[in-house]
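TL;DR need structure tokens for one chain.
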Amino acid sequence: MLNKVVLIGRLTKDPEIRYLPSGVAVTTFFLAVNRNFTNQQGEREADFIPIVVWRGLAETCAKYLSKGRLVAVSGRIQTRSYEGRDGQRRYVTEVVADEVVFLDRDGSGMDRSAVPFDDLPHSEQEYEDIPAGFQYIEGEEDELPF
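>> reply
TL;DR here they are.
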């Protein structure tokens, strides 16, 4: 069986971090992902997908991400249910991320190369041998030139 999802989108608000009684960090945020088509009015719609990140990666996301940041997320879809205060059963579908890659600079102009190496998500550590002279290209992140 396979349960794998890869998304690229923008955060709809700042991530929220909390700690379980055991001390484990969990961060949640919503990712706005554009659909590949327009509606009848010619407008592009988006889906707003809940993302859950655990442990060290949760702390990194809470520290360095903010509303509007462009990220790539990979992980698995998880469904769960709980009983609401009104006694009704509620169902939640969310993405549990095991990898989050920061794709743009934050509002202060800091790019991901300015983040301390130990604080980078695991996936970024795999690319420590980026050639000298490699740099971020300014421009429209949402549109490819081809």
